[in-house]
């Protein structure tokens, strides 16, 4: 399968290009060339002026399309989530399991492994375990009964069962042990500080000792104050720590997103933290307008898509479209060490692209080389 996408505004990650085409061969980007230089015999898809960017990457999402991974961690649920995300312009994601029972935590990594084996070119990058080694003081909507101290034997079991499926783990630095950190780092798991009441000193030490990210900046973490900078201050002060942020105007004010981006630059990336309605299990959510809440009414997740988060950054935060897209593509790819394969429109990169219009509404994706464009746009000529 070899074809070209034309008549589009290309956002490569480094430049905005007009009158250029993306040549796709199999599941990879072969070239980005001036339209006038396209081979005469290549199949062409005219995108009618749509924007083309790298496929969006969500490193923290729990469910979609009325299914919730944290309640039903199965291959079928992951397939349904992937299909829903493709309609939203998101091509890659980490399925996230919050603090839960040992059984469900095991099932999450097993489902991640099984899905990746069945769909080696799928969009699932792995599993993000958000807990269970977190702070009781900053548990947020997490269930207190499942919070526990780090257990190296349990971690070894997850790593064994997942065989590489466990890609990120959110843990409170103040409860982390050197043995747990070393084991996870050796296995290539990204350690993210979250649901934490750590002091600035504790968080700074963590960022120097194996933690490379922070989970949903501002939410469920110690705040920046004049006498105690907390985890937020440690994130700002770090030279290496990435942080995810939920740009919905609910989890944190848009001004906080803007200030953080000014201070952090390329270390700040977008997530949705999106959930789905669920009337069963430990995590029961209901849709409350622009957010989801749990049975107690506690803020428990967003109603965002990644493209909506990008749009919010452009329209409400004041970040350029180019940078907002990088926050949803290149920067999360870097967090997982995948920046040589994902996050750019460039030769040799995976042919996973997001297609959207001037209003930043999704019109389809290229998913592992396959063009999935909503009608009536798109016309093919041999």
UniProtKB/TrEMBL annotation:
Binds 1 divalent metal cation per subunit. GO terms for molecular function: metal ion binding; N-acetylglucosamine-6-phosphate deacetylase activity. Its cofactor is a divalent metal cation. The active site is at 273 (proton donor/acceptor). Residues 52-358 form the Amidohydrolase-related domain. InterPro entries: Amidohydro-rel, GlcNAc_6-P_deAcase, Metal-dep_hydrolase_composite, Metal_Hydrolase. Keywords: Carbohydrate metabolism, Hydrolase, Metal-binding. Zn(2+) binds at residues 130, 195, 216. Coiled coil: none annotated. GO terms for biological process: N-acetylglucosamine catabolic process. Substrate binds at residues 141, 219-220, 227, 251, 299-301. Signal peptide: none annotated. Belongs to the metallo-dependent hydrolases superfamily. NagA family. This is Amidohydrolase-related domain-containing protein. It comes from Solirubrum puertoriconensis.
